């Protein structure tokens, strides 16, 4: 059974619609997953005197490398006395510190 040109166009439109719908669903669910992680992050503080590399890595703009530097600095200096000490760590700019201040604490 051969399909007419109009039937092929209709099938093509249906297939494109299905693919578009799947892509939209995927990107919207991915975006909401990111928002959920941000909500979790904003509802808890990270104690920079106790957090491990994985916890520090969750802070915005802090990757594994900077997280390791934080842990190393903390070990060498007997912990952090204040949040401003983070400026002594390579890779933490004033802008980055301002971004993470709301998520961190010192105990």
Strand order of the largest sheet: 1-2
- Basic shape: rod-shaped
CATH topology of the domain at 46-105: DNA polymerase, domain 1
List low-pLDDT spans: none
**Helix- and strand-based class?**
mainly alpha
Number of strands: 2
Notes on the structure:
With 107 residues, the protein is mainly alpha-helical. The protein has a domain at 46-105: DNA polymerase, domain 1, CATH 1.10.150.320. The chain is built from 4 helices and 2 strands. Strands 1-2 form a two-stranded parallel ribbon. It is rod-shaped.
Helix and strand arrangement:
Blueprint: H1 5-43, E1 46-47, H2 53-57, H3 64-76, H4 94-100, E2 104-105
Which features characterize this protein?
107 residues; mainly alpha; DNA polymerase, domain 1; two-stranded parallel ribbon; 4 helices; rod-shaped
Q: In short, what is this structure?
A:
The chain is mostly helical and 107 residues long. The chain has helices spanning 5-43, 53-57, 64-76, 94-100, and strands spanning 46-47, 104-105.
């Amino acid at each position: 059974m051969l399909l007419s040109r109009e039937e092929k166009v209709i099938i093509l439109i249906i297939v494109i619609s299905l693919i578009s719908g799947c892509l939209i669903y995927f990107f919207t669910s991915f975006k909401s997953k990111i928002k959920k992680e941000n909500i979790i992050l904003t509802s808890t503080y990270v104690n920079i005197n106790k957090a491990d590399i994985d916890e520090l890595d969750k802070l915005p703009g802090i990757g594994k490398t900077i997280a390791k530097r934080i842990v190393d600095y903390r070990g060498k200096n007997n912990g952090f006395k204040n949040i401003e000490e983070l400026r002594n760590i390579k890779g933490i700019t004033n802008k980055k510190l301002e971004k993470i201040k709301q998520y961190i604490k010192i105990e």
